[in-house]
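Let's practice the habit of predicting before peeking. Look at the sequence and jot down your guess about where helices and strands might fall. Then scroll down.
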Amino acid sequence: MTFEAILPQLKAGKKIIRKGWGGAELYVKMVGEGIMDGETLNPYFLINVEGEGYTMFTPTVCDILAKDWEIVE
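Done guessing? Here is the structure:
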């Protein structure tokens, strides 16, 4: 699946992953808007990596152009 096709699923709360990664990456998820220290927190992506936990995720050009995205059940 392309990034364009899977993005609505990500926005709807689904977890996604690229088949081509094949490493310790478990899934990417979106965190919605919130409030932190009285300020608006804009939506952002997190990636869960086995043994490391969560970190911020910004898709690369290769990720955006890839056709191997899938929903994690």
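How did you do? The first strand starts at residue 15 and ends at 18.
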